[in-house]
Amino acid sequence: MEHPGKAFYRLSRLKPGDELPMRKLPAAKVYATPLETQALPPPRLEGGAPLWRVLARLAPRLPEVGSSLSLAEVSQLLMALASRNSEALGQKDQGRLYPSAGGAYPLEAYLVVQEVQGVFPGVYHYFPKEHQLFQIAPRPDFLRLKAALLDLPLEKAAALLVLTLVPERSAALFGLRGYRYALLEAGYAAGLLLLAATGLGVAAYPAETFYDEEVGQVLGLKEGEYTGLVILLGR
Predict the structure, then answer these.
(1) pTM of this prediction?
(2) pLDDT tens-place string over residues 26-38
(3) What are the contacts of 146-153 at 24+ separation with CB within 8 A?
């Protein structure tokens, strides 16, 4: 039996003469009846640490202090995922701050809040168009989540930012190759998030190894949406 990873790359190759499906784009994910809607303060668009100084300090770092994050810091971090036409960014251009092949945007983001000032602990879906958080579940069982993340020190994290993928959005345009583009998009977004965290002095640690089904159950993911990356945030 062919290795599934090798089969994926073989089947998603693009050769001269191949045509991409380029079907209609699926609608973005929106929760119609969230438990709570948390408006985020407008992120800063100017100032902050110069880019090259931030890049020099860029490195994955586990939270160690265990203190909370402010809502303003969360807003600034999530700016990396926001739509350019969000009122919070004051821009009219379409799209987001990272590239997405065909504008499919298969990426979704969830914030699992443990200690964020002024925000109820729980699971939130990030709505990039309005730069808002929608609470979709109460505080999860963090012991179960810790076990799902192979015993990473979640007790020191103020929040977890989970990036998930809905590859069918990209596959609707590009066929099997869309699965590659979905993974690339998660990488683009994660890079911006780590850069933003470093500029804010926030510890951010990307966990790529976890028990997929356990994390998916905490988020309430449906069939066709997959956990791509879990970023621990804190001090």
Answers:
(1) 0.90
(2) 778 899 999 999 9
(3) 147/211, 147/214, 148/210, 148/211, 148/214, 148/215, 148/218, 149/207, 149/210, 149/211, 149/215, 149/230, 150/207, 150/209, 150/210, 150/211, 152/62, 152/205, 152/207, 152/232, 153/62, 153/63
